[in-house]
């Protein structure tokens, strides 16, 4: 993401955190809460059909992120059958928890970061 790639054109980051979304996020990521993901996955596929790299994550990328990525890929195969472009669906290793730990001070990568949220919830 630190290249000449253009967010929402060359790649998109899909954050599936729910209430734990508050306190910071990856810049230009779209929040599609896991509790509502099934209701909106068809719409997400249509919105991202021309994007070659779709990256999913949650707080730790152990359950919600991988599950949403699987559902997205299966839905995309059905919705775009025969009309899809070459693409990759990826999962951000270690989720936003580790991403924010490493990049929280870089406004090009993280926005809306709140130290009080992370101090109280994750330390």
Order of helices and strands: EEEHEHEHEH
Largest sheet features: 4 strands, parallel
What is the terminal separation in angstroms? 27 Å
Percent helix, as a range, is 25-40%
- Rg: 14 Å
Main-sheet strand order equals: 3-1-4-5
Task: Describe it.
This protein has 123 residues and is of the alpha/beta class. The protein has helices at 37-47, 64-79, 95-103, 115-122, and strands spanning 12-15, 25-26, 30-31, 53-57, 88-91, 110-111. It has a four-stranded parallel sheet with strand order 3-1-4-5, with helices on one face. The chain has a two-stranded antiparallel ribbon with strand order 2-6. Helix 1 crosses helix 2. The longest helix has 16 residues, at 64-79. The two termini are 27 Å apart. The mean pLDDT is 94.
Q: How is this structure best summarized?
A:
The protein has 123 residues and is α/β, with parallel strands linked by helices. The protein has helices at residues 37-47, 64-79, 95-103, 115-122; strands spanning 12-15, 25-26, 30-31, 53-57, 88-91, 110-111. Strand 4, helix 2 and strand 5 form a beta-alpha-beta unit.
